[in-house]
Automatic annotation (TrEMBL), chain A:
This is ABC transporter substrate-binding protein. SUPFAM superfamilies: Periplasmic binding protein-like II. Gene3D superfamilies: Periplasmic binding protein-like II. Keywords: Signal.
TrEMBL record, chain B:
This is ABC transporter permease. The keyword NADP does not apply. Keywords: Cell inner membrane, Cell membrane, Membrane, Transmembrane, Transmembrane helix, Transport. Residues 76-284, 371-565 form the ABC transmembrane type-1 domain. It comes from the Bacteria. Belongs to the binding-protein-dependent transport system permease family. It is found in: Cell inner membrane; Cell membrane. The keyword DNA repair does not apply. Pfam families: BPD_transp_1.
Length: 342, 580
């Protein structure tokens, strides 16, 4: 396609369109022969960092050399918007989707956009991370904890409520639920805990917490010492610490909300066999070891978490019903906006 | 109706053969408008359609819902303040700089020009990061203020005025770019005549120079206005902590807001944004109605105002201080960040390495292929825009009637919309332009190409149109009477006169396409990743040190290209134009 682009982009737009319209190649794909290896093309939409997504696809292709996987990678919010726009436009291009949290998948499920497929590999997973209807399953564990700048703070916090105490006033930062889906998930979960609730967010506002767009901005802010405390997804903090940033990751004692980066297959997939094989691979022992090597806590039991992160059984997990979170997400955001004066 | 009318009549009469042909063939007009409609307006209309439909029936429900919310009106008010303020700032800075560079004897003007472009090329997340550190509690501004008596605090950038400041500084180069050539073309004799008639320098500036520079100022101001309106990075970064929403960030919040009505609500807000853009465009037409050119001058780069040595040094020093703070400081911040191993480690020699560069250019394969893709896309976009945009500007100049005005308006809208929204429009449109027919454009590099051309064409149209406005219609007539027709007329007479103006438009299109981020992040596909996509990817994965390394190389490359370009310009002046 690129060569084609090279050659003819100098001709005017109209000719270009005609040329494109008559071209036969494209995303058409053929399902592989059942049983014996899979083949064809696969469109994989994901929000994983580029290198990680590529690593996953490379490992899968080592086992299934006849499958050609194209990756589209962007932020969860962008990937979701893209699929919804494709749906509005009449034709979803994605075959397999892997993005932030179960609530996102519940919204696609509610619109009947997902295929029912219960991978045999899900038997080795904690069933609370698997959709009972089989439309999606978690692929890793990403907890949100506290990040602290160790140049400025000697006494590490132990609890979420440390962020609402007088000594941390004006020195903490969190990602905005209005921009980040993961932060919106945390909002939904934490306001449903007896120990925290909406009072927690009201107290954060009273304590003058700063709101940034996403987790990356929280990391920059705390690592550079602009702020001393932050709410952040665990692997970012662990990785920054390993790279030498003066930060420490804390799992608060009340427990942590976790997102699981679920994977699911789109109902109108053009390559069901390859999609299923891909999902199986992500959840398999090999796929999960790869996730651990890439720096994430694996979701499959019996595989070690990478340096600096806790494994699933070492964490206390704050939980809430994904379906309920979906129904109330919009209200939650509005309420958040009201508390923080927007 | 107004003074414009007779001029139009005159022009048409003089060029009667061609214009009669055109008037008799309204058909051509209609066909042209239909093509423009399909490429520029239809994608947007498909989004607007969503704001009227609920479960298959037409409804005003979303409008009543959105318009009733106080949040909407607060956002609109914020937007008007932010966009108005930053546009005024961009205009003041842009006019000041272009006037100084065009009129006043200063040394090192070419280097100055390069630094004027920088704030516009450096990615806005870098600009904001650099400025927030500059003004932070541990930054240089606070340190300097602490030497001064009194309790002075550094201004808080996380505020309305902070957003206005950064937007204005990022977009004044647009005003500069469109205005500087116009200033250079103002006939010296007019100013001399004004001086002889007893007008003071100041009054000459307000009564003669400024009105004559209006075409450039209006075009640059309009583009700066639209850029302020659609900018997402700066208000998102600075506005989120301060609870300040503008339309572009509010629309993004709606789009990612999941719910079934997400797109519909976003569409309603986009319509409001479009109306504001329309208002700006019409205001600009209104301003240009009164401008008219009587003489055609070749652009004149020799200074008109000579200062005493001391004053000249003072002005130069002030200009360079401003440029160092607004252009070099973010660049240095970016370079410094790209050398450290991790955020927060002290900036000491043992912590510095080229590790980030090594990863970006040796380990990861994406950045290099993205660079190649973006360069090709930017180049082809520039060429197509150069041809189509200049043709459009010519028609708009020759036949300023309803059809060309409408066409220009259609072309403005894709540029005014926030990138995310425009990308969604492109998906709606090109996935299945006609239900059931997928032309396989979406999902390939072609969708990016079409998106870039539709989004950036207006920049070229404005650039070329400004250049045309500098030409007295009699030049063309003179060319024809002397026997120069068709291509010869263009090559020998028109193009040399138009060259600088057309080129600044093309340069703008090229730079915009090269560093484009928000549209690409939704439309790219395997094999067609762009520079913006790679930077966005690193940022989102929390690898800011990688993205700064990549951006640093990109900006240095652009600087180098710019320096080469200026050198060529110097040669062109000497060899071809034979100006001393």
């Amino acid at each position: 396609m690129k060569k084609f682009f090279y050659g003819s982009a100098t001709v005017c737009l109209v000719t270009v369109l005609a040329a494109c319209g008559s071209e036969e190649s494209g995303t058409d794909s053929k399902a592989g022969i059942a049983g014996e290896g899979v083949s064809g093309t696969l469109d994989f939409y994901t929000s994983q960092p580029d290198a990680d997504a590529q690593g996953l696809v490379d490992a899968f292709k080592a086992q299934n050399p006849d499958v050609n996987v194209s990756i589209f990678r962007s932020g969860t919010e962008e990937v979701v918007s893209k699929i919804q726009a494709e749906n509005q436009g009449g034709n979803i291009q994605a075959d397999v989707l892997l993005v932030a949290d179960s609530v996102t998948f519940e919204s696609f499920k509610a619109d009947d956009l997902l295929l029912n497929y219960k991978s045999p590999e899900t038997e080795s997973l904690d069933q609370s991370f698997v959709d009972p209807d089989g439309t999606y399953a978690g692929t890793k564990i990403m907890a949100t904890g506290l990040i602290v700048n160790t140049n400025d703070v000697t006494e590490l916090p132990t609890s979420w409520t440390d962020l609402t105490d007088e000594p941390t006033s004006g020195q903490a930062v969190m990602p905005s639920p209005l921009y980040s889906g993961a932060a919106a998930y945390n909002l939904g979960v934490m306001t449903r805990q007896d120990s925290l609730g909406w009072e927690f967010y009201e107290a954060l506002q009273d304590n003058d917490i700063t709101i940034t767009q996403g987790n990356g901005a929280v990391l920059e802010s705390v690592a550079t010492g602009e702020k001393k405390y932050g709410m952040i997804v665990d692997f970012l903090a662990a990785r920054a610490k390993n790279d030498g940033s003066p930060v420490e990751l804390v799992y608060p004692e009340e427990g942590v909300p976790v997102i699981t980066e679920p994977v699911g297959i789109l109902a109108n997939t053009e390559n069901e066999e390859a999609s299923k094989a891909f999902v199986d691979f992500i959840l398999s022992e090999e796929g999960q070891k790869l996730a651990s090597q890439q720096g994430y806590t694996p979701i499959r039991e019996g595989i070690d978490a990478p340096e600096g992160l806790k494994t699933l059984d070492e964490m206390t997990i704050l939980d809430a019903e994904a379906v309920e979170l979906l129904e109330t997400r919009s209200d939650d955001k509005t309420k958040f906006g009201k508390i923080f004066g927007q | 109706m107004t003074a414009k009318q007779p001029i139009d009549g005159e022009r048409k009469k003089r060029d009667s053969s061609f214009s009669l042909f055109f008037q008799r063939n309204n058909l051509y007009k209609i066909i042209g408008l239909i093509v423009i409609f399909i490429f520029f307006l239809l994608p947007v209309l498909r989004l607007i359609w969503l704001s009227f439909v609920n479960d298959g029936s037409v409804t005003m429900q979303y409008y009543t819902e959105v318009l009733r919310e106080p949040a909407t009106w607060k956002t609109v008010k914020n937007t008007l303040i932010v966009v108005g303020g930053s546009t005024i700032l961009a205009l003041v800075l842009g006019i000041l700089f272009s006037w100084l560079v065009a009129y006043v004897q200063l040394s090192g003007k070419r280097a100055m020009q390069l630094f004027i472009f920088l704030p516009f090329v450096i990615p806005s997340y870098i600009t904001t990061l650099a400025w927030t550190q500059f003004f932070s509690a541990s930054g240089p501004v606070t340190a300097m203020l602490s030497w001064l008596p009194g309790e002075l605090a550094a201004p808080n950038l996380y505020s309305m005025s902070g957003i206005i400041l950064l937007l204005g500084i990022s977009h004044y180069p647009l005003v500069y770019l469109f205005t500087v050539n116009v200033f250079r073309k103002i006939p010296r004799e007019l100013e001399e005549a004004a001086a002889t008639s007893g007008l003071s320098k100041q009054r000459t500036f307000w009564k003669v120079v400024l009105p004559l520079a209006l075409p450039g100022i209006a075009s640059g101001g309009l583009i700066a206005f639209l850029s302020n309106l659609d900018n997402f990075g700066i208000p998102a970064f600075l506005g989120t902590p301060a609870n300040i929403r503008v339309l572009s960030t509010y629309i993004y919040e709606q789009v990612v807001g999941f719910g079934p009505s997400a797109f519909s609500r976003a569409a309603v807000l986009s319509v409001i944004l479009g109306l504001i853009a329309l208002l700006g465009t019409v205001l600009q037409w209104f301003l240009l109605r009164r401008s008219r050119v009587n003489e055609t001058n070749r652009s004149d780069s020799t200074p008109r105002i000579y200062l005493t040595a001391g004053k000249q040094k003072l002005v130069e020093a002030l200009l360079w201080i401003f440029l160092l703070v607004t252009s070099l400081m973010p660049l240095i911040t970016m370079g410094a960040l790209s050398l450290i191993s991790a955020y927060g480690v002290p900036f000491k020699l043992e912590n510095l390495s080229l590790r980030n560069y090594e990863y970006v250019f040796m380990t990861d394969v994406k950045p290099m292929s993205a660079l190649s893709n973006s360069l090709q896309l930017a180049l082809f976009t520039m060429i197509v825009c150069l041809v189509l945009g200049t043709a459009m500007a010519y028609l708009r100049f020759k036949y300023p009637d309803w059809s060309t005005k409408t066409a220009e308006l259609f072309m403005t809208i894709p540029y005014a919309l926030p990138g995310t929204v425009f990308a969604l429009c492109m998906i709606f449109m090109w996935l299945e332009p006609v239900p059931g027919w997928n032309p396989n454009i979406y999902g390939t590099v072609w969708i990016l190409f079409i998106a870039y051309v539709t989004r950036f064409l207006v920049l070229q149209v404005r650039g070329s149109y400004t250049a045309f406005l500098q030409i007295d219609p009699s030049m063309e007539e003179a060319a024809r009477t002397s026997g120069a027709a068709g291509w010869v007329k263009w090559r020998r007479i028109l193009l040399p006169l138009l060259f600088p103006g057309i080129l600044s438009g093309a340069l703008l299109v090229f730079l915009m396409a090269l560093t484009e981020l928000t549209v690409s992040s939704l439309l790219w596909s395997s094999g067609s990743e762009t520079v913006g996509v790679v930077i966005f990817g690193y940022e989102q994965a929390g690898y800011s040190t990688y993205s700064t390394a990549f951006s640093t190389v990109l900006v240095l490359g652009i600087l180098l290209g710019g320096a080469l370009f200026m050198l060529l310009g110097k040669l062109w002046d000497r060899k071809v134009l034979k100006n001393k």
